[in-house]
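Help! Submission page says 'invalid entity' but I think these are all valid:
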Amino acid sequence: MQYRIDKVSGNKLSVLGFGCMRFPKNLGIIDMRKTEELVMASIAGGVNYFDTAYAYPGNEEALGTILEKHRVRDKVFIATKLPVLIVKGPGDFDRYFNKSLERLRTDYIDYFLLHMMTDTDQWGRLKAWGIEEWIAGKKKSGQIRQIGFSYHGGQTEFLKLIDEYPWEFCQIQYNYSDENFQAGVTGLRKAAEKMPVVIMEPLLGGRLADALPGDAVSIFKKAGDYLSPAGWGLNWVWNQEEVCLLLSGMSTMAQLEENLRLADRALPGMLGEGERDVYRQVLGVINRAYRIRCTGCNYCMPCPKGVNIPGCFAGYNAAFSIGYVAGLQQFVTSTGIISEKTGSPSQCVKCGKCEGHCPQHLPIIKNLEQVRKKMEPLWFRCGIAIFRKILGRGRRKGNGSRGETQGA
Ligand code: SF4
Ligand code: SF4
């Protein structure tokens, strides 16, 4: 395992951080046996940074339980987050923070983030509620060791936000297909001048690992079979000296083992011009293929009408990147369109509840309309109606369920 130094605290952080959001699940519930195996194997492999959040269902409890059981709390750094979007006033700072401590079975947080910051107005509201004083109190008591924020807004606001407060770290989305998106490379370099930068979505929610267009996979294969598409994606991030560590949402032992092997050699400047050209070629294919830049994070869910928003977008993208039939199969499976309770785009009533929660700022309603037109054409709707009649099922209703996606 390679380690890089957090220039503010002096902590030695593993270049591979564990993004706990994608802990293995069974029917939407965290699989504790598999999760425990993964967490303990990652620690044995040298991982010392675990990223969770108040807002990830069951996540803090799972991590806290495992660390306590194996008495390894003091061997790792825990990062968790204040759910800024649902904070309604100053009383909520302590309320959510104390709950995180309780769930994580700890009395301090090493890296505490304001979750999903998008602009300086949002920071202004938090300041008006006294967040600076609150942070100062928590730092003084030792309950918060390092304070930072995770970011999902535009570059201009990011550059302002990093100067608004003496942040001790920040977390941004960054990968080879997002070099100029959100904070982007300019934001990364500016932030890295003063604080460690943690990278989230290095594989765009797994899309750069297992949902790449076939032509892109072929380019990677031709360039070198020794690396999987996921390996290529992670190496691109690690290659940059401004990056302190990246978070990978590992759900299987195979993903962890591959990532550990890669993290052994994850040095800044390790990629040459030939490799950089491979990324350029792959990017050309991706940009032609993906139409909706959904990462499958699920922040927009649940939809009150049961629309499986990330599932709809995944099927739609697959129709372009892999082929229409494969995309349609994925769409049918993820929306449950042939069942009585479907999560298809045609259930959307345009209430707008989802849009404000999307870190990618996707125009979800408009995008769902795009998906509906492409994936639910007349012939398909007729076919489904006939199929449902044969099965003797009534009119469809939304299922109100949560869409689940996976990724590395
Ligand atoms: S706008 Fe549509 S998809 Fe979004 S929450 Fe409302 S019904 Fe669901
Ligand atoms: S639409 Fe936005 S919030 Fe919903 S899963 Fe996709 S990226 Fe996440």
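Support: the input was valid. A stray whitespace character was the problem, and the output above is from the cleaned input. The chain is about 45% helix and 15% strand.
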